[in-house]
Amino acid sequence: MENIVVFITAPDEEMAARIAKALVGETLAACVNIVRGVRSIYSWQGNIEDEAEVLLIAKTKKSLFEKLSRRVKDLHSYQTPEIIALPITAGVPEYIDWLNDVTGR
Hints:
Blueprint: E1 3-10, H1 13-25, E2 31-44, E3 47-61, H2 65-75, E4 83-87, H3 93-102
Antiparallel strand pairs: 1-3, 1-4, 2-3
C-alpha cells in the first residue's frame, strides 16, 4: 500500500481549515497540517505574483489521490489550485498503520 503526502495551498486559514476538515471528515486523509505564513512567488498568466498563502499537508493513500483532488477542487476558490503528491518512503510502523486504518485499508 503506497502512502503519500499531498501539498495544497490556499489563500487563507479559513479556506484551509474548511478543506482540511472535509478531507479528514470524509476519510480522504488521515491528517492535515495547516502551515501559516507561506509566501508564494509564482508565474500566473504572464505575471510574477507574490502572495501570502497557507499550506496544507495531507497524509493519505495514493489510491485516494483522485478523490481527494476532486474534493479540493470542489471546495477551493482558485481556478488552478496546487494539489501535488509525494510518496512517503518511510515512517514509523505505528503511524503508517494508523494512517492506513483511518483511510480504510
